[in-house]
Each structure stands twice: as C-alpha cells, then as structure tokens.
Amino acid sequence: RPRVLSGIQPTAGSFHLGNYLGAVRQWQQLQETHDAFYMVVDLHAITIPQDPATLRQSSRLAVAQLLAAGLDPERCTLFLQSHVPEHTQLAWVMNCLTGFGEASRMTQFKDKSAKQGAEGTTVGLFTYPILQVADILLYQADQVPVGEDQRQHVELTRDVAARFNHRFGESFTLPAPYILKDTAKIYDLQDPSSKMSKSASSEKGIVWLLDEPKKTAKKIKSAVTDTESEIRYDPEKKPGVSNLLSLCATLTGSTVADLEKSYEGKGYGALKTDLAEVVTEWVAPFRAKALEYLDDPAALDAVLARGAEKARAVAGETLARAYDRVGFLPPV
Ligand code: TYM
User: How far apart are the first and last CA of the chain?
Assistant: First the structure.
C-alpha cells in the first residue's frame, strides 16, 4: 500500500470548511486505500503564541473532530506530533540541509511574519516548513493530502529529500502533493478573492464546523456575491458565486455544470438557501459526534497513545537510518 501522511493545526479549536473539504475529507477516503498517518501538529501551533490550557483543549478537540469526520484508528495511525520526538530530531538535520534563502521564499512564512511583525516573528515560525519536511520524510510518505496553500511546503520537502539522498545515499521517498482541483482552495464567504483562513478571515467569512448550524446557515445566506443575477461559474469575474457553486457541487456530489443548469433563471437567494441546507445537514451530525467524543477525554487520550506507539515504530527506524547516514555514532 502506498503511504500518505498529513497534519492539521489544533489552533482555533474548531476546524473550518476549508480544512475539511481541502484536506480532512480526503484523509478519510485515503485511509481505505493507503497506509495512512495523520497527526495533530501541536509543535507547529506554538510558532504563534498559545495559551497552554487552550492548546491542550484544542488538541483534544482536533482529535474529536478527526474522529467525527470518519477517521478510524483501526484504519489509520492518528497521533499528536509532540508525542513523537523524532519529528524535532529529524527537523534539526533538515534545518542543516536547507538554505536560508530557500526558507525565506516560503510564502506562508512571508504572510504570517508580516502579520506578526518583526518583534513577534519567532525563529520557530521561520523554520516551521522544515519541521514539516521532517514530518513527511519520517514516514517515507508517497503522497501528502493537503490544500493548495501547502503545496510549496511539499515541494520544499521534495527538494530537501533529494539533496539528502544525493549527499548521503538514497534514504527518503520523494513525496507528491495530493491536491484535489475542486477543493484545493475554499474561499472566504465575505472576501471571495481570499482563501478561508483561521487567521485571516473575518468571523462572517468563515464556516466553523463546530458553530451552531443555525449560525452557519445565516453566514452562508449573507455570503458576498456580485451585482449581476446570473448563477454562472466564473472564478475571475464572479468569485463569490463560483465559490458557492463549487461548495454545493462538492457537498452534493453533483457537477458545477449540472448546478448551473438547474439554477437557470433562479436568483442567488435560491442557491444560498440550498447550500445553507446542504452544509447544515452535513455539519449538524458532525458537530454532535465531535462533541460526544470530546466528552470522553480518556478515550481520546487512549487513541493518541496507540497512535504514538505506531507512529514511533516507523519514525524511529527512519531517524536511526538518517542519523547513521549523516555520520552520527550510534549511542552504544
Ligand atoms: P493547517 O492546519 O493550516 O490546515 C490543515 C489543512 O487544511 C487545508 N486548508 C484548506 N484547503 C482548502 N481551502 C482552504 N481555504 C484551506 N485552508 C486550509 C490546508 O491546506 C491543510 O491541508 N502546515 C500545515 C500542517 C502540517 C502538515 C504537515 C501538512 C504540518 N506538518 C505535514 C501535511 C504534511 C498547516 O498548517 O495546515
């Protein structure tokens, strides 16, 4: 079985619709066909200041949501990044193989550091993509299911892996991004030229999966569209309507072309009402399940303990080989 690995930050508590459609939904599907490793990346989360109690709660909440989304600990390895020390250990080696200029070109770093300001930007935020390189290479992942915003980090991973292989001998699988075209980038409901984002979207622009379904329906109904009235897919000229159309297509399993046809002669209100219904029908049971899982923190911790054990078995082996290749003496 080919292997997949991916991660999601626990920050913000609730996942949003972009996280689900861009990534987590594919994770659920890939666990059936692939040897799948999925993690909650708490080490990545602290690149931006986090309150310790909130972080603890968010990590459990993230696991609860992944289970609610259909991840099955019997079918995949589900773990917390900080439980597997090999991530930071391999990251150091990869830090020493990554150029400063190369790391400086990461657009997520540029965006996030601009937001944090010079004083608020930590070295951790800068080396974050290199920790992600280690995340992926430790498991020899063939594919990495993510949204479009993570493509550059997967490309960096390929470059650094190829460099290691060239320097020290064939050691790492070069991973490919697994990005579905239709859901690669879900847009902000209020600002449909920007992606839906935990850190950048306004409250009204973002669909939080754990919000009251009623609140979500309201947000969808007040999504920004345009001054025309035709329901037509045209991301350039009609980004708002196009975003609603692709959301609707993805969630109902129909095509955008079919939707265009069925909404011929109808107004934006009809599309919004239908989409609000489709989203809440999905989100209401999801939310109920997630909150139920959250009610039993001991069970969540048990899932993570088992996941960490399985993850460490793989990660430990890769790390030992990498350390040896680099020239570190074994500790005996
Ligand atoms: P994170 O936590 O920001 O996002 C989790 C996943 O959601 C996707 N995503 C979106 N997809 C489509 N449209 C959107 N508007 C949207 N917003 C977010 C992201 O692309 C991502 O797949 N650095 C990563 C986490 C990570 C990771 C890894 C991923 C750490 N190590 C190793 C893969 C492999 C991140 O911050 O994702």
Answer: 34
**Count of other CB atoms within 10 angstroms of residue 174:** 17
Give the number of the atom of ligand 1 that is nearest the alpha carbon of residue 132: 31
Work out the pLDDT band at 201, boundaries 50, 70, 90. Answer: confident
Q: Which of 143, 149, 160 to mutate to test the pocket of ligand 1 (most atoms within 8 A of CB)?
A: 149
213 vs 143: CA distance, rounded Å: 33
CA-20 nearest atom, ligand 1: 7
Work out the burial of residue 194: count CB atoms within 10 Å of its CB; fewer than 13 is exposed, 13-18 middle, 19 or more buried: middle
- Reported pTM: 0.96
Is residue 187 within 8 Å of 195, Cβ to Cβ? yes
Alpha carbon distance 288, 268 (integer Å) = 30
- pLDDT (tens digit per residue) in 65-106: 999 999 999 999 999 999 999 999 999 999 999 999 999 999
One-character DSSP codes across 18-43 = HHIIIIIHHHHHHTTTSEEEEEE-HH
The two tokens of residue 293 are 């899982």
Q: List, for residues 140-152, the tens digit of each pLDDT value.
A: 999 999 999 999 9
Residue 63's alpha-carbon distances to 125, 168, 206, in angstroms, are 23, 37, 21
Residues 6+ apart with CB under 8 A from 115: 199, 200
Cα of 147 from ligand 1 centre, angstroms: 6
Q: Is 152 annotated as a binding residue?
A: no
Residue located nearest, by CA, to atom 18 of ligand 1: 19
DSSP codes, 267-302:
-HHHHHHHHHHHHHHHHHHHHHHHHHHHT-HHHHHH
Question: Which residues are known catalytic residues?
Answer: 112, 195, 198
Lining ligand 1 with CB less than 6 A are 5-9, 18-19, 22-23, 41, 44, 132, 135-136, 144, 146-147, 149-150, 185-186, 195-197
Tokens of 322: 């990498």
Residue 107 reports pLDDT greater than 90: yes
